[in-house]
Amino acid sequence: MTTQTEAEAPLAVGQDTKAPNTTVGKEAPIRYTPAACVILERRSDLRKSLVYIVAYLMMEIGKQLSNFALSRANDGQYPVPSSLLVLLTECTKLLIILAWAMVMNISLLRWSPSLKFCLPAICYFMTNLLYLLALRSVPPPLWMILIQTRTLYTAAVYTVVFGRELTWVEVVGCLLVVASIPLARLSELQGGHLTLTSSVMLTSQVCAILSTVASVAVELLLKNDARSFCEQQAWLYLWGSLLGALAISLHPDLDSLSHLLQENRWSWSMATLLVLAVASSALAGLCVPFIVKNLDSIAKDYLAALNNMLLSAVTALLFPLHFTITWLYLLALALLILGIWLYERKVIWRHP
C-alpha cells in the first residue's frame, strides 16, 4: 500500500476526471465523465466512526435474529402483516428523531417540507418488505450474501454516473462478490436445504438494486442538501411512515387485521420478539445515515458483510434446523469479504 501524494489525492465527484494519468508504475484507473458536480467524498475514517459502526453491527445482528425468530415462531408467518412491522419501525425512528430535536432545542417550525426524500423512502420501504418476505424461507446469513451484489451496483453508479475512479483490482473485488452467490447456492444444496429458489434469487437482486438506489440517494442528500442532519432524517422517516400507513389502508382484509390487534392473544415470547424486532430494526436504521454521511454506501455494505461472520455462527447455534455452516458457505463468505476488502482498500499493484 503506498502513501497518497498530492497528485494521487482523490478527486471530488464532479471534478474533471479526463486529465491524463501521470502516475508511473501503477495501474491505470477506469474513469468516466461525471454527470453532475456533487460531493460524495468521505468525511471521516473507520476509527473516527467507530461508535456508530459498533452500534450498527450490534443492532444489525439483533434485527436479523429477532425478525427471523419472529417468523420461525409462527410457522413461517409473522404475527402481524409485514407492512405493519415496517410502519412500526418507521414510526419508531421518526419519534426518536423528533425527541432528539426537542432535546437539542431544534425548532421544528423552521423545517420546510421536502419531496427529495420520497424516492429513498419508497426504495427503503420496498426493500424492508422484500426482506421480511425473504426471511420466511431464507436464513439471514444466506440472505446477506445474496444482496451483497449491491456493492457491485453501487460501485457501477459511483463510476458511470458520478465519475469516481475505479481500478481493475476494485473490479476484481466486485466480481468476487458476485462469485460468492453461486457458492452460497451450492452450500444450501450441500446442507440439504432447498430454500434458494429462483424466486428468492430474483427477489434478492431486486432488493439489492432498490437498496443501492436508496443508499446513493440518501448519501447525495446527506452530503449536499442544505438542511440539518436531523431535519433530513425526519423527512425521510416521515415519508416512510406515510407509505406504511398507505400500505396498511390497502390491506385486503382490514376487519380481520383490526380484530387481530384487538384480541391481543400473543404469548409473552411472541410479544417480546415483536418489540425486539421493531426496536432493533429502528436503531440499526438510525445508525446507517451516520455511517453513510461520514463514510459512504460501500463502507456500509462491507461492514454488513464482515458482520455476517458473527451472524452466521449465532444463527447456526440458535437455528440449527434452518441453517448449517458448510465449507462451501465458508468459502462463499471468504470470497465475499475478500472482494469487499479489495474494493475498500483500493490495493494498487505495481508492474514488475
Topology:
Layout lengths: L49 H23 L9 H22 L14 H17 L5 H7 L3 H12 L6 H23 L7 H27 L4 H21 L4 H10 L4 H27 L2 H22 L8 H19 L7
Helix pairs in contact: 1-10, 1-11, 2-8, 2-10, 3-7, 3-8, 4-11, 5-7, 5-11, 6-12, 11-12
Description:
With about 350 residues, the chain is mainly alpha-helical. It has one domain. Helix content is about 65%, strand content about 0%. The protein has 12 helices and no strands. It has helices at about 50-70, 80-105, 120-135, 140-145, 150-160, 170-190, 200-225, 230-250, 255-265, 270-295, 295-320, 325-345. The two termini are about 15 Å apart.
* N-to-C span: 15 Å
What's the number of helices?
Answer: 12
Radius of gyration: 21 Å
Number of strands: 0
Order of helices and strands: HHHHHHHHHHHH
Strand share of the residues?
under 5%
Describe the global form: globular
Number of structural units classed as domains: 1
Q: Indicate the percent of residues in helices.
A: 55-70%
**Low-pLDDT ranges:** 1-36, 347-352
User: What class would the helix/strand composition place it in?
Assistant: mainly alpha
Mean pLDDT across residues: 76
Summarize the biggest pleated sheet: none
